[in-house]
Amino acid sequence: TQARVAQALAGAYARTGDIQGALRAAEIVEYEPWRDHAYREIVTAQLSNGQLDEAERLAMTTFTNASFLDMALADIAMAYAGIGDPERALKILPDYGHGKAFHLLQLALLQEAVGKSEEAFNTFQQALQVAEQAGSRKSFESTNKEHLLTLEVHSGRTQEALEHASGLDSRRKPGYLGRIAEGEAEQGHHDV
């Protein structure tokens, strides 16, 4: 059908970097889910080209489906975190329960990767709070225990890391206890 062709054309334009052509093609797609899919591809292309502000503007003004909007906003937030602007990322991050907690976890891991251990730990704590509000803190915390331990070690929270390590699978515990000891040694503590 014409709508499918226009959607495919919008995607092709977006992948080749012709954002204006992609937008023109997307605008003629009458079936909303297909149009939103085309806009999603355009947002992805803009993010690939470093056009974060444009991607955010497009997402906020075009999507009719909340799921497509949430996915686009999560991608945009991760892009802002990736360029070192976690505050902007947190403002954009979609506000939905366990999904938001997962995206906050991704943000924390990005912060950790660029050496911002304290910010990463605080972001992880926000993720736990969001998961708790969504009624899934226990599940979220147990699923991501290893990330929590890593963040605790790197932010100097050895005692908390030791407490959380006690609940690890016995096959993984020695590795994490070694990481805790390494973290302590890096910080000049030799009594672990």
Strand content: under 5%
Rg, Cα atoms, Å: 21 Å
Distance between the termini: 68 Å
* Parts with pLDDT < 50 across at least 5 consecutive residues: none
Overall average pLDDT: 80
Characterize the overall form. Answer: elongated
H/E topology pattern: HHHHHHHHHHHH
- Which percent bin holds the helix content? over 70%
Structural class: mainly alpha
Number of helices: 12
Largest beta-sheet characterization? none
Quaternary organization: single chain
Number of extended strands: 0
Task: Describe the protein's architecture and organization.
This protein is an all-alpha fold. 77% of the residues lie in helices and 0% in strands. The protein contains twelve helices and no strands. Helix 1 runs antiparallel to helix 2, helix 2 packs antiparallel against helix 3 (32-48) and helix 7 runs antiparallel to helix 8. The longest helix has 17 residues, at 32-48. It is elongated, with a radius of gyration of 21 Å. The protein starts with a helix and ends in a 6-residue tail after the last helix. The mean pLDDT is 80.
